[in-house]
Design goal:
single chain; alpha+beta; three-stranded antiparallel sheet; two-stranded antiparallel sheet
């Protein structure tokens, strides 16, 4: 009780049943309140959106790296097709250097690329047992390489293996097939060398 301008005012502080907010009224009030809806919708969409975005970027980088390596192997294999590498006495290291000169700088060619060159008299001689394996048993990149460029009119196989480490760093996407999450990328060129020197 208190007085206002000489009048005594009495306030009723008891709450009756009809004055209490009902659960249905609270839900109706929350349902009609649209503040924060955008934040909730964004939270529902951001996960799939980022997954899709990183997926597109990751797959794009994978194909770009694959095509870059394939192009470098194809161009370097021309040195074997024309006999230039054989006549100039290229070593395995020199031929790998030629491949590395042709790949983009984002490919760690010196440490993560293995180049194999094999020659065969006939295409029928090429079999699974005659080709080296890029991976060791523990799914790491093999250090063993072959370099047999062959002679005129022989079948030559140029095979490059690259450990693409970026695949382990792309979120929401598992492209790895090697130890540590790296991805093995391979590029091959099969050709018959020209009858050079005749």
């Amino acid at each position: 009780m208190f007085s206002v301008a000489g009048r005594i005012v009495m306030i009723n502080t008891t709450v009756t049943e009809c004055e209490r907010p009902s659960a249905g009224g609270l839900l109706a009030r929350l349902r009609s309140d649209t503040r924060g809806v955008t934040a909730i919708e964004f939270a529902m969409v951001v996960g799939p959106f980022l997954t899709l975005l990183f997926g597109i970027i990751g797959v794009g980088l994978f194909f770009f790296t694959t095509f870059s390596l394939e192009n470098a192997v194809e161009q370097a294999a021309r040195l074997l097709r024309t006999g230039q590498a054989q006549e100039e006495g290229f070593t395995a290291a020199q031929f790998k250097t030629k491949v590395c000169e042709l790949v983009p700088s984002h490919i760690n060619c010196g440490e993560k690329v293995r180049v194999n060159v094999m020659s065969f008299q006939d295409a029928g001689d090429i079999g699974d047992d005659s080709l080296p394996n890029c991976l060791k048993g523990d799914k790491t990149l093999s250090d063993a390489t072959e370099y047999v460029p062959g002679g005129p009119s022989q079948i030559v196989v140029v095979w490059a293996c690259y450990e693409w480490e970026l695949s382990s760093k792309i979120p929401f996407l598992d492209l790895g097939n090697m130890a540590g999450g790296s991805r093995l990328i391979q590029a091959t060129s099969v050709l018959r060398s020209e009858p050079y020197g005749s």
